[in-house]
Design goal:
Length: 235
């Protein structure tokens, strides 16, 4: 198990007062646990500084512009491999069954393939199992990291850290194939309408009873004060 994945899940969630208050805890977790490389941890620091420096509303505006108004930056992983094909539904159901088999109840209105949801699940799984699942999505995270880097977003470091952990190379054929898709224009309101229509699909609990991902995760985030750092993963 790794609380680092839980911390990164929070960091990739919609900015909130709770997230801003947890920045110090997130910084301590990713530094002390030893799951991420030192370079990856150092690269994430500017994003953590942004979370401390800017007010919640500015952070939310940036988040929406990046992840909610651009399909090519979607944190819903199956968007990048299945798009609107018929394969997306069965893949989503299979992932949901994987969560249930692992004793993980989806308590969010987000889809099962939402990256923060996946990371929350993996935070309670053995490291080897987490690495195997992330390897399956490594090319997606590497492509997202590159797209975010092109937009000079500090979120790029989080995706790059996950891609590095998964052993994904930005130069790989699968990554380059994803990057060959033209970037979305966040000002394209017609495309945004399509995204909102798809958002009506739910695999979790009643949307009226949903609560923010970051709040649920933060409620369970505890730093193991006296735990020895985990051994670094060999790529």
């Amino acid at each position: 198990m790794s609380v680092t994945f839980k911390a990164l899940s929070v960091l990739l969630s919609y900015p909130s007062d709770d997230l801003k208050a947890a920045v110090g805890e997130i910084r301590e977790i990713i530094t002390s646990e030893g799951i991420l490389s030192k370079d990856a941890v150092a690269a994430i620091q500017p994003l953590l500084t942004d979370m401390e420096k800017f007010d919640k509303y500015e952070l939310q505006e940036r988040f929406v512009l990046l992840f909610d108004r651009s399909r090519t930056l979607s944190l819903n992983l199956f968007e990048h491999v299945h798009g609107e094909s018929r394969d997306r539904g069965p893949a989503m159901v299979d992932l949901l069954e994987t969560y249930r088999a692992g004793g993980f109840d989806l308590v969010s209105t987000e889809l099962p393939d939402h990256l923060p949801i996946l990371l929350e699940f993996l935070s309670n799984r053995p490291i080897d199992e987490a690495k195997e699942m992330l390897e399956d999505a490594g090319h997606i995270m590497a492509a997202l990291a590159e797209r975010l880097h092109r937009r000079e977003s500090n979120y790029a470091a989080v995706l790059a850290a996950l891609a590095e952990f998964a052993g994904a190379e930005a130069s790989s054929e699968m990554v380059q194939e994803l990057l060959s898709v033209k970037d979305d224009d966040p000002e394209d309101l017609e495309a945004l309408d399509d995204v909102w229509e798809e958002a009506e699909i739910t695999f979790g609990p009643d949307p009226e009873a949903g609560c923010p991902v970051s709040r649920d995760i933060l409620a369970n985030m505890d730093i193991p004060k006296n735990t020895q750092p985990a051994a670094a993963m060999n790529e």
